[in-house]
Amino acid sequence: MYGSIRIEPNLHSKPLPNLDENLGFGKLFTNHMFMMDYEEGQGWHDPRIIPYGPISHDPAAMVFHYGQAVFEGMKAFRTENDEVVLFRPDQNAKRLNRSSERLSIPQMDEEFVVRAIQELVRVDAAWVPKKKGSSLYIRPFIIATEAILGVRPSMKYSFIIIMSPVDAYYDEGLQPINILVESYYARSVQGGTGNAKVAGNYAASLKAQTLAKEHNCAQVLWLDAIEKKYLEEVGSMNVFFKINGEVVTPSLSGSILEGITRGSIIHLLKEWGISVSERKISIDDIVQAHADGTLEEAFGTGTAAVVSPIGSLLWNGTPMVVNHGEIGQLVERLYTTITGIQCGKLPDTFDWLLKV
Ligand code: COI
């Protein structure tokens, strides 16, 4: 499928940075990237691993005007035995196709996508950090490259994969973050693109996020766009609450991204016999649970964020502090388990890892 992957070594490779130092998130990039093109009539072709560097496109390329772009986020880990593994890459390949379908981007063979990721990670395997909490973040994305200003699906695309050694997504690390519950702006509506990983969703979230920062909040928790009542997601994470012993998370309404970490967390909770339900949760439910003392924990889940405790929710100008602003027991257990599986400390019981 699509021919074999050509590898062009980087003759001007950057020296490997000290991966034990603070890496931040998405600031450093490895020496190679994967690229493959699509043209109507020719299909996806010319898969290649080439030196990492700038790409050049016609200023009329459709991605610059109409935002026809989708992406994925996934990670490679270095295990205790020095093996490099990917976490559930098949799920990312599937979701990439779902997102592409929503934006009229041609589908790709999912097994090939996983193979391309494996090959690229193999080439830059030295960049997979070992330090606790670190990983190699992998960012596959597709952009519309046809140079034409008419509004219709592009007839040309590039599929690119870049990689970045990273630490925790939030500056707070595993410390609880403050979240602002957004009452004015909306992220998505039914029938929109909220359940697809499209670039525009993130552009549209920036204004509210900037305002949230002014309130000392790391992120925004979105409410449904119609009633401004039901919790959706944070944008960089799905959300979970432990209320009176039960774990709840908003059901996939059509405007929420189906997180791979979200699915893994639900799976783990069920395995542990902890009651977990996916349902509509209103902000009033949370206010009530906070008032009567049954809001035990709140946390977000995502590839970049892993499992991040929420220390307080700012709603209508009043902060609702969760678990005294401290890391809860359940969050800690989930974090330790998921990162334990990823770095080979715990057995991969559910077959979530793929060796590179
Ligand atoms: C991820 O968790 O991988 C994401 O894509 C979220 C964010 C960094 C945009």
From TrEMBL:
Q: Which residues carry this modification: N6-(pyridoxal phosphate)lysine?
A: K197
List, alphabetically, the InterPro entries matched: Aminotrans_IV (IPR001544), Aminotrans_IV_CS (IPR018300), Aminotransferase-like (IPR036038), B_amino_transII (IPR005786), BCAT-like_C (IPR043132), BCAT-like_N (IPR043131), BCAT_family (IPR033939)
Q: Write down the PROSITE patterns for this protein, in alphabetical order.
A: AA_TRANSFER_CLASS_4 (PS00770)
Q: Name one GO molecular function term.
A: L-valine-2-oxoglutarate transaminase activity
Might you give the EC number(s) for this enzyme? 2.6.1.42
Q: Which GO terms describe its biological process?
A: isoleucine biosynthetic process; L-leucine biosynthetic process; L-valine biosynthetic process
Q: In which pathway does it act?
A: Amino-acid biosynthesis; L-valine biosynthesis; L-valine from pyruvate: step 4/4; Amino-acid biosynthesis; L-isoleucine biosynthesis; L-isoleucine from 2-oxobutanoate: step 4/4; Amino-acid biosynthesis; L-leucine biosynthesis; L-leucine from 3-methyl-2-oxobutanoate: step 4/4
Looking at its record, which EC class is this enzyme? transferase
Please verify whether the record's keywords include Transferase.
yes
Which reaction is this enzyme known to catalyze?
Answer: L-valine + 2-oxoglutarate = 3-methyl-2-oxobutanoate + L-glutamate; L-isoleucine + 2-oxoglutarate = (S)-3-methyl-2-oxopentanoate + L-glutamate; L-leucine + 2-oxoglutarate = 4-methyl-2-oxopentanoate + L-glutamate
Co-factor requirement: pyridoxal 5'-phosphate
* Origin species: Paenibacillus oryzisoli
**Similarity comment: family membership:** Belongs to the class-IV pyridoxal-phosphate-dependent aminotransferase family.
Q: Which UniProt keywords apply?
A: Amino-acid biosynthesis, Aminotransferase, Branched-chain amino acid biosynthesis, Pyridoxal phosphate, Transferase
**Name the record gives this protein:** Branched-chain-amino-acid aminotransferase
